[in-house]
Amino acid sequence: MLSYAVRGLTRRHGVGGHSVLANDRIDLDVRQGEVFGVLGPNGAGKTTLVRQLMGLLRPDAGTITMFGRDVRAAPDLPARLAGYLGQDDLALAELPVATAVATTARMRGVPRAAVREVRDAILDELGLTAVADRPLARLSGGQRRLACVATALVGDRPVLVLDEPTTGLDPVARRAVWGALQRRRDAAGTTVVLITHNVLEAESVLDRVAVLESGRVIACDTPGQLKASVSGDVRLDLAWRHEPPADDPTVAMLAGLATTNGRRWTVRLDPATAREALGRLTTGAALAALDDFSLATPSLEDVYLTLGGASRDLERT
Amino acid sequence: MTIVPDARDAPAILAALQPAPSLEPSSEPSLEPSLESTSGLSLESSLESTSGPSTVPLPLPIPMPARLGPPKMPLATRFGTAFGAVYRGQLARSKVGRIPLLFVASFQSIGILVLLRGILDVDNTTAAGQVVAGSTVLVVAFVALNLLAQRFGALRAAGALDYYLTLPIPPAAVVLGTAASYATFAAPGTVITAVLGALLYNLPITGLWLLLPVVVLSGVCLAGLGAVVGLLAPRPELATIAGQLGMSIVLFLGVIPADRLPEIGRVARDVLPSSYAVDALAAAFQPGVDWSKVVLDLAVCAAVGIAALAVAAVTLRRVGTS
């Protein structure tokens, strides 16, 4: 069963000469019970896509069905089936965390008698119990975002649509969110559609990922398959303490291949060459200049760049 | 950089890396973490390690649950439940910042009462009754038109209407729930204004129970209008200005006795729904109350109120989903 089937979805923002094609003939299938990611740089059309999935924007062309039913014929479907986390939280800003969660639960039809239990469970799950009585506006940015995630998750919808749920969260909170999503997926078969521009998040929690660039889906597969499809190369990152010896043959070879960012070099090489080069560097004269290095298989960022993605604002951590 | 990694350990690390079975990217994705961990310095991994991966294990791809049927369709939430939840949430919002508003709303009306006391002939109970009723309805207008227009204007500008529009609730519950929470703070102000006015102008207070239906119905009416104004305003500043303008109109047309208005003023007064609330309440201060007229006035208020609320609900959906 497909939670979402999107066909030919097209949406333009603005009119005339200043209009932007935010979504351009997007086709997507989101299977029930998967964590599906939308990865892309700022301005790729990710938010436009999920706002259409939630019925907040009307497509110019194309169709969206949820569990086989056309969303345009039944505009109340997304609100009933999906919990949504948007980018702005002004509606909740002045509410204490516990009240925001409890009233949202009521609005999703949680019975009055069960609200307290449901509320406390989610606050505990996301580590918000200590700040339950404080208004969202008085929390740190990360905790505030986490409280909004709690309101999106409460009430156990079969689908969750989350616009950058972990932006601004510290690693502990981020893992708490990932864990909460995974638990719902495993226990109840919840479908999760989440936007991210964080490569680490995409690689560690997503079952499948669609890579968006300028309103188009340029790739859609599991993170592993995407990475395997683009290249057999590995990435060697080097950071130099000071200028490396230019006469060192290994350094000269790498310098010719590297993309540099100050004293940080990134080189894409086949695995054997990379291992050899690193071996020579760390045993030779260049070692004195070497500050840091890492060797890694291709990341989704490499996938994005290889597929023709132009933007550099994907996050790695 | 504060942490200086010892790159001299690199050969040892590299040696440990050597027996790694494969660097082929086609191998299992789980290989990558082990590769990453061989980096000389991984700020990322040192950060991540503070998160205590043991408390919440990093979720790795888990086999999907077998064969799921279509989910049970959750029901839309009933109006009463949604109204209650919006009301409770908005009330919690206001605990800190809204108390001063209570004073502002009634001081303004009390000020007008005192001011006109010096001008008006107190023996004219018709005019006196209307001044008191007009001032009382002004408290409602302040909250419903002015504050609600501001609130919805701000929500629209921030894109925060998404929160309500993605919940399975009737939009009218959002408008009415928000209005009711503001009204909770305005209610004492209407009582104070009406009682103080009756005392100042020597009017009977036996008919003051009419205050309840008048405040509720004019509240629904003006709240609906206030929400529409706020939602339609292209910028939040315009919503504020429009709300204040609306309040001023209610003030002038409500407080100035109808027989002293010019012709155009009387027409405007007949169009303005709050006038009917003022008339109904003004009747309560008169010796002989024409009940059929009071009921008719209140019925007009109720009808306009329902219409305004319906328009506000449609506007909320229309503006929020473009």
Can you walk through the features of this model?
The complex is a heterodimer of chains A (317) and B (322). By secondary structure, chain A is of the alpha/beta class. Chain A is built from 11 helices and 14 strands. In chain A, 36% of the residues lie in helices and 27% in strands. In chain A, strands 6-7-8-3-9-10 form a 6-stranded mixed beta sheet, with helices on both faces. In chain A, strands 2-1-4-5 form a 4-stranded antiparallel beta sheet, with helices on one face. A 4-stranded antiparallel beta sheet of chain A has the order 12-13-11-14, with helices on one face. Chain B has one domain. Chain B is 69% helix and 0% strand. Chain B contains 13 helices and no strands. The longest helix of chain B has 34 residues. Chains A and B meet through helix 2, strand 6, helix 3, helix 6 and helix 7 of A and helix 1, helix 2, helix 3, helix 4 and helix 6 of B.
Key attributes of the depicted protein:
heterodimer, A: 317 residues, alpha/beta, Rossmann fold, 2 domains, six-stranded mixed β-sheet, four-stranded antiparallel β-sheet, B: 322 residues, mainly alpha, transport (chain A), ATP hydrolysis activity (chain A)
Short description:
Chain A: It is a peripheral membrane protein. With 317 residues, chain A is of the alpha/beta class.
Domain unit count of chain B: 1
- Taken in chain order, the helices and strands of chain A follow as EEEHEEHEHHHEHEHEEHEHEEHEH
What is the CA-atom radius of gyration of chain A, in angstroms? 23 Å
**Average of per-residue pLDDT values of chain B:** 77
Category from helices, strands and their pairing of chain B: mainly alpha
Q: Can you tell me the overall shape of chain A? A: globular
CATH architecture type of the largest domain in chain A:
3-Layer(aba) Sandwich
Distance between the termini of chain A: 34 Å
How many strands, which pairing sense, and closed or not: the largest β-sheet of chain B?
none
